[in-house]
Amino acid sequence: MKDKQKENQKKKEKRKELIKTIVLCVILLICIVASAIFIYLSEHKDKDEKEIAYTELINSINEGKVEKIEMTNGSNSLKVTMAGEGEEKDREKTALVPSIQAFMEWVNDKVDKENVKIELIQNQVNPFLKVVDTIFDFLPTILLIVLMIMIFKMQGFGGDQGKVYGGEEGKETDVRFEDVAGLDEEKNELIEIVDFLKKPEEYLKMGAKIPKGILLYGKPGTGKTLIAKAIAGEAGVPFISMSGSEFIEMFAGLGASRVRRLFERAKKLAPCIIFIDEIDAIGSRRTSNSGSETENNQTLNQLLVEMDGFDTDETIIVLAATNRPEMLDKALLRPGRFDRQVTIPAPDMNGREAILKLHAKDKKLAEDVDLRDIAGDTAGFTGAELANILNEAAIIATRNNHEAIGKEDIESAVKKITVGLEKQNRVVSDKDKRLTAYHEAGHAVVSKFLPTQTDVKEVSIIPRGVAGGYTMYKTTEDKYYISKTELLEKMVALMGGRAAEKVALNEISTGASNDLEVATGIAKDMLTVYGMDDFIGPISLKVDDPYELQIFGDKVIDQVGNQVQKMVEDAYKTAQKILIENMDILDKVAQTLMEKEKITSEEFEKFFE
Ligand code: ADP
Ligand code: ZN
User: Fold this and answer.
1) What's the rounded Cα separation, in Å, for the pair 561 and 12?
2) Does residue 387 line the site of ligand 1, with CB under 6 A?
């Protein structure tokens, strides 16, 4: 009897569960259909026949069929008025352009150089209205997402446990070590992890201890995520990733529970890889007790608990990435946690060539392109920046109707990424032009008299990005060590800009702010990092905590301040001296710059013959 009752009860419960699920599914379906309709309607309400394709727009402009183009700041959508008879309203079209900046450059060129008549109108958008507009655009999506989250919560699903690539289904990331160019030593160091994940039993039988956590140090874009994915890909195990900043939650305790769920999920999927990007966001040193800090501490503590809580035979390997190792809480680096560190450096000459080659595989390059040359011109660039350069070059080549990506396309892309786009349309007053011309000429002429400095490659007073002008130097081979003389001369070259303003125009400007910042930074590093000051001696003043500096006493600290000031001042004086002695050359270079706006290295060298 009792048993029967129980069974009935169970049946009832099951039926209830089923009904609940069906109702939820129906609600979900209705929501999806409703928002799909809403989105469709709002997207298509006034676009129908009025929208023209990008290529059609370009053709129409080329054929002189466009009368007016109106753009709104920050939007890729343009209002285009075609030339012709009849009401202006009927001739209005809309067009979407992939890159508004590139497009406008091109149109401006057309108007300036080819005398095509197009009226260009720039509308400013009220930022408040824009926000409201955006919210309305996304309203249905937001509502749908909120609903779905609610349903999922009711159903008792866990929510975010990190993104999983692959998983029980047996799919893996398709990244392999061959997709990571350069970094040979680093790959060698990590290959044993792959082997361990492939056949953990063998290692465990042998009694080998496998690291639980590995910290990847390196600038953003050096390929840390890529290499972590490649490890998972090579081993054929799931890759679960999460970014440290995602753990930082508004509500106390949530960060910690996310960490817990992340590891729960990993245990189910093991063997697998957990990747925590920007670990410094949670793992920075536990110091004060202010609001978000305590929250941070909870999250960090949970991470430590989890790291200690699983055994190596669970075959979970946690990879974490950061570019600020000095920020990390020391507790994270203890044995059994992230006790292995691998530095992922910015690529050297060979690495850059390898990365460029890899990313050039799917691109159409012209014969004149020598990737080794480009690698030589891009010292200090990361893998992400190099990939970006080739992509930009492809865009530039397409825009200029080139058959393939040529040498000059790549050079423009490099420039675009280093100094920002040339802004040929910005109106520069004659006075500004003169000041910029002397400033840049100053850098260039001064460096010519400094034996350790590389030759000038190009001087320009065409504004680019935030800079009013620029002086580019030829790069040489990568250097691992820089001498004291070289650093001092570098400071002199940096001060050359302001020195020229002063000696030629008896005026100084804000244009030198970045130069001053860099020069001051060099002086500071020379004293505190490289131990290059006679009084302070060869000691490092790089400390974790400013209080630690106190052990050196006020004398040392005062010396740093005074010495930095003196070194920058000296560099400034040296630059002035060089310029005063070579005033004729400075004048000639500046005059030429004002006329031609750009000087190549050959033209520059002629001034010294
Ligand atoms: P990080 O995680 O260090 O910030 P990523 O791994 O996200 O950098 O790199 C971003 C992109 O840059 C990659 O998806 C890849 O296209 C490119 N990249 C970076 N380093 C390399 C490399 N060594 N080889 C090939 N591509 C690279
Ligand atoms: Zn400058």
Assistant:
1) 80
2) yes
Structure tokens at 492: 């002199």
Q: Tell me which amino acid residue 42 is.
A: S
| Cα 600 to middle of ligand 2, angstroms | 18
CB of residue 405 inside a 6 A radius of ligand 1: no
Residue 223 CA: which ligand is closest? 1
Strands (E), 231-298: 239-243, 272-277
pLDDT digits (tens, 9 = 90+) for 459-496: 988 776 667 788 888 776 666 788 999 999 999 999 99
Atom of ligand 1 nearest to the CA of 181: 24
Q: How would you classify the pairing of strands 470-473 and 340-343? A: unpaired
Instruction: In whole angstroms, give the CA distance from residue 212 to residue 225.
Output: 18
By the 8 A CB rule, do 604 and 457 touch?
no
Number of CB atoms found within 10 A of residue 499's CB: 31
329 touches 285 (CB < 8 A): yes
The residues carrying an active-site annotation are 440
Rounded to the nearest 5 degrees, what angle is found at the Cα of 505, between the Cα atoms of 502 and 508? 45
Contact 441, 459 (CB under 8 A): yes
Q: Is any ligand 1 atom within 6 A of the Cβ of residue 345?
A: no
Give the chain's radius of gyration (CA, Å): 31
Q: pTM value?
A: 0.56
| Ligand 2 centre distance from Cα of residue 494 (Å) | 6
Spatial separation of the C-alpha atoms in residues 270 and 266, rounded to whole Å: 6
> Relative to the alpha carbon of 446, which ligand is closest?
2
Q: What is the pLDDT of residues 256-293, one digit of tens each?
A: 888 888 899 898 888 899 999 989 888 776 554 444 55
Helix (H/G/I), strand (E/B), else coil: 542: coil
Cβ-proximal residues to 435 (8 Å cutoff; 6+ apart), any chain: 501, 505, 507, 509, 511
Nearest atom, ligand 1, residue 229 CA: 6
Closest C-alpha residue for ligand 1 atom 5: 223
Instruction: Look over the chain and give the mean of its residue pLDDT values, rounded to a whole number.
Output: 82
**Any ligand 1 atom below 6 A from CB of 222:** yes
pLDDT of residue 553: 81
Q: For residue range 516-550, what is the model confidence (pLDDT) as tens digits?
A: 999 999 999 999 989 998 888 898 888 777 777 77
Is the CB–ligand 1 distance for residue 176 below 6 Å? no
Q: Which residues contact 607 (CB under 8 A, 6 or more apart)?
A: 585, 588, 589
Residue 470 contacts residue 419 (beta carbons within 8 Å): yes
In a mutational test of the pocket of ligand 1, which residue from 214, 226, 349, 350 has the highest number of ligand atoms less than 8 Å from its CB? 226
